Backbone:
């Protein structure tokens, strides 16, 4: 199968590209810069130059492919409305290009904000609907294309997709610990995150592209709940720093933007995903990665 991957040089997207190639698939990647194009070419990946705002490039990539895997997002924490806008229009452009083809359309989505008070399941419908909602309501928009002959598969990612080179939430928490001289957690540290190693997440994406029925929601979750206090303690051990509680009122000044996520429980199960695709995570745990130095280089 030939897959067009947006975000093909990103943290998770680059692992997805490697997983697809290892499984014998051909890959076309969206490249925004010369450096990205060179990185993809070095792997033998075909290149479409463009970005999320270049809708023609998205359509060209989709037209050349048997499947589309949409991993890219602007992640503009200073202007989330712009990230939401670009995500929605990109999903619409790709969905329109795939309409009537029965080709797979694998769309990355977050687990945050789905439910409160319990772990989210694959049966939970995203409450984000419409352009003014989180990520522009792209998950539900992509699922709307099932009725138009697209094999949409949503893959929701744990808040920590971890491993060496991760630039996500745990990287920001580690940077805050270095800056403040203490590895903090919020309140009593009982808030918890799900986690998954990026290689396991990449394998789930590949299996979803190959096998998942239209309308499937998958959860890239290996560990259902790792407490934020345990995360802070592992960071403290890896950096040789003390560990202490941060009061909720000091969350922003201490952690920056990531503080509001660190104070929030974001957990989910992956039982349905495991049964459906015989997916069994094999990578190291989040705490093992932190303690092995994945975030201290």
Residues:
């Amino acid at each position: 199968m030939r897959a067009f991957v947006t975000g093909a040089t990103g943290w998770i997207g680059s692992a997805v590209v490697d997983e697809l190639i290892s499984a014998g698939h051909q890959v076309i990647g969206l490249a925004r810069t010369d450096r990205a194009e060179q990185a993809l070419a070095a792997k033998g990946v075909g290149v479409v130059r463009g970005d999320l705002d270049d809708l023609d490039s998205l359509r060209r990539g989709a037209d050349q492919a048997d499947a589309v895997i949409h991993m890219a997002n602007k992640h503009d924490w200073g202007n989330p409305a712009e990230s939401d806008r670009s995500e929605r229009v990109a999903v619409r452009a790709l969905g329109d290009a795939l309409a009537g083809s029965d080709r797979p359309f694998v769309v990355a989505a977050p687990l945050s904000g789905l439910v409160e008070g319990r772990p989210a399941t694959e049966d939970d419908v995203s409450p984000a609907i419409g352009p003014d909602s989180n990520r522009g309501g792209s998950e539900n928009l992509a699922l709307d294309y099932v009725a138009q002959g697209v094999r949409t598969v949503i893959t929701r990612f744990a808040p920590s997709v971890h491993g060496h080179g991760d630039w996500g939430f745990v990287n920001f928490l580690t940077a805050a610990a270095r800056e403040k001289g203490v590895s903090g957690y919020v309140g009593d540290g009982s808030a918890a995150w799900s986690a998954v190693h990026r290689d396991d997440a990449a394998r789930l994406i590949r299996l979803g592209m190959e096998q998942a029925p239209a309308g499937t929601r998958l959860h890239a979750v290996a560990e259902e709940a790792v407490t934020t206090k345990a995360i802070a303690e592992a960071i403290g051990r890896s950096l040789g720093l003390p560990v202490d509680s941060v009061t909720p009122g000091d969350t922003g000044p201490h952690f920056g933007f990531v503080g509001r996520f660190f104070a929030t429980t974001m957990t989910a199960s992956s039982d349905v995903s495991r049964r459906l695709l015989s997916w069994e995570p094999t990578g190291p745990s989040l705490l093992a990665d932190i303690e092995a130095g994945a975030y201290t280089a």
